[in-house]
Amino acid sequence: MDDHVYFAASGVASVRWEEPHGTVVVEWEGWANTAEFAGLLDAEIAALKAHSGSRMLADCRRQRVLNPADQERAEREWTPRAIEAGLKRLAVVMPESDVAAAKIQQRLDSAKQAIRIRYFASVDEAREWLGR
Questions:
Q1: Residue ranges of domains in the chain, CATH in brackets
Q2: What is the value of pTM for the model shown?
């Protein structure tokens, strides 16, 4: 697989460009502190820009609830940057945690005007939608 890793922190998450699908793939492994979350968000933007990408798959099944201030900052700062970087379609595989799932949907609600966002139970479903 011809992937380029932009962020990797054991127990936190990874961000990579997946060439065969032309997609930024984010795989959560748990919880992120403020610095880790900021690094992950920056890596997503860098991957989109480096490959002129327009699609992202966020596998959040193992994501835990994040610091509310970090989530608010992400909504305020990441969303406009992601749109500017070219993000058009975002497939989110929902966390097992109901609280984390609700927070993700709340955070991404403001982006729905410019980004097509869909929520899925599995990575396969998310990939299939992104491939359309």
A1: 3-130 (3.30.750.24)
A2: 0.88
